[in-house]
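Quick one, tokens below. Sequence please?
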């Protein structure tokens, strides 16, 4: 049985600005012990919808390759099923024409508030607050899920009204209906994941994620192939698997001695916890939505270029490759977020600062490795997605820009983790508005449509936006008063106790 990631006594008091010998090494070990399992957990979650579409695809239910699916946090029936049939030709990957925002607004990313609240409460040894925060997050997610469910029930009519093919719209609507239970499963899984992560209990998370993945494969195959439910079976399998995931996580929390102190619920604090949850949850969701909406704009804009099949195929490959790399960066960000929030809650601001440096060390190592790997394999990486030499050559041409994206996205992922751990998600949200919509998108559209750089111009806009985002985050983080952040964390915890949040 894994023990909670307890803070040592010397971490409970501020240290001198000058780092002690071995302090960074010690923090590297702690961040690494959190980052590696969380990256694996994210991969397992990513594979759930991929496997569903792969199995259904082999039965001829989907025309889209699973390799081009969005990550699970942005997965929606529209993004899975609403593709332009004209883009299936010549071996080219299909074009996403749907929106990823539905799932982003629900239980997944708004629960990023728990990185701040649970992490700092655990560091302050206010263990009973972790359970109350988590229960309030689940309760707050349910109305959001109900609202999205209503939209999904009428998905076919909505898509037809937006000009989508009626046959595809009806399939998407049916898929959405059977995916609704998975939405509510997310409302439980993600808060409980944050609850365990902020305590450093990542090994149970890893076991639960892998168990769910192994459970999902035979369930999906049975529903799609044996019972002949087709795409509806794939959606139903997702729903069954996410509820299985939720149940085994809940059982661990209920019966594990590691959660004995933290699973309690204080009803008197419920209202104040809900207020704090939305205070941090809304900007947390905005951080992610604003970033992913830019990529949605990127794919939609590529369909207006002179050779839309080629441009959308290549940009979809670049987006998928970047998403796969981001899984690693998100694991590092999760480790940094947990360590920063724990140490701020514990009143150890300088240790929190060292945690940031440890995360940046990991970022430097992984970004150099994966960028070098991609650049070395740039002439063959396209064959993983397409047999078209034209597509493969175009991917090789865009690879240097994609390498820059690896470096910048990894950097911003780590600093966004710092933002979640510190509680300044609102800065991250406004930063994304400036970086991507006031700078990145205009630059990309100008280069693509006015200067004739086409898809390369669009991706240049992404790189420029990421560079602006990274610069602003670096300035904010480097100028951060960590003692002030620790004091804010203390006041936040006290305000919850007094019902003033």
């Amino acid at each position: 049985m894994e023990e909670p990631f307890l803070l040592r006594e010397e971490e409970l008091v501020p240290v001198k600005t000058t780092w002690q010998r071995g302090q960074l090494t010690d923090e590297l070990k702690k961040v690494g012990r959190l980052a590696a399992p969380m990256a694996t957990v994210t991969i397992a979650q990513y594979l759930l919808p991929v496997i569903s579409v792969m199995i259904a695809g082999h039965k001829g239910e989907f025309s889209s390759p699973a390799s081009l699916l969005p990550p699970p946090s942005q997965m929606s029936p529209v993004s899975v099923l609403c593709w332009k049939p004209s883009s299936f030709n010549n071996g080219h990957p299909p074009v996403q024409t749907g929106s990823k925002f539905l799932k982003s607004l629900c239980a997944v990313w708004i629960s990023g508030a728990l990185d701040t609240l649970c992490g700092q409460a655990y560091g302050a040894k206010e263990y009973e607050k972790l359970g109350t925060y988590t229960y309030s997050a689940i309760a707050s997610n349910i109305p959001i899920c109900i609202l999205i469910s209503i939209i999904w029930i009428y998905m076919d009519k909505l898509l037809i009204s937006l000009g989508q093919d009626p046959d595809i719209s009806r399939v998407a609507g049916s898929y959405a209906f059977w995916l609704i239970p998975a939405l509510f499963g997310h409302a439980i899984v993600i808060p409980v994941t944050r609850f365990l992560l902020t305590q450093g209990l990542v090994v149970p998370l890893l076991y639960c994620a892998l168990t769910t993945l192994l459970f999902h494969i035979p369930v999906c195959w049975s529903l799609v192939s044996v019972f002949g439910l087709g795409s509806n079976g794939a959606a139903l399998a997702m729903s069954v698997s996410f509820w299985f995931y939720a149940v085994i996580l809940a059982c661990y929390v209920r019966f594990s001695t590691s959660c004995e102190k933290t699973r309690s619920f204080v009803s008197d604090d419920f209202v104040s916890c809900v207020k704090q949850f939305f205070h941090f949850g809304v900007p947390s969701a905005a951080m992610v939505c604003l970033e992913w909406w830019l990529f949605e704009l990127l794919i939609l804009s590529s369909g207006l270029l002179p050779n839309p099949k080629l441009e959308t195929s290549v940009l979809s490959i670049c987006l998928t490759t970047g998403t796969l790399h981001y899984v690693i960066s998100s694991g590092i960000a999760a480790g940094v977020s947990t360590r920063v929030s724990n140490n701020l809650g514990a009143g150890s601001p300088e240790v929190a600062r060292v945690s940031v440096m440890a995360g940046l060390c990991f970022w430097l190592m992984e970004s150099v490795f994966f960028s070098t790997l991609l650049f070395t394999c740039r002439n063959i990486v396209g064959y993983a997605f397409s047999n078209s030499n034209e597509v493969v050559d175009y991917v090789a041409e865009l690879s240097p820009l994609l390498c820059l994206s690896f470096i910048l996205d990894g950097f911003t992922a780590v600093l966004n983790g710092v933002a979640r751990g510190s509680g300044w998600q609102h800065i991250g949200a406004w930063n994304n508005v400036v970086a991507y919509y006031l700078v990145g998108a205009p630059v990309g559209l100008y280069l693509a449509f006015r200067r004739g750089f086409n898809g390369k111009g669009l991706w240049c806009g992404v790189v420029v936006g990421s560079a602006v985002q990274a610069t602003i985050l670096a300035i904010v983080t480097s100028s951060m008063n960590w003692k002030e952040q620790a004091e804010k964390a203390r006041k936040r915890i006290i305000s919850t106790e007094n019902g003033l949040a």
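Residues 308-345 form the longest helix (38 residues). Confidence is low (pLDDT under 50) at residues 7-18, 63-102.
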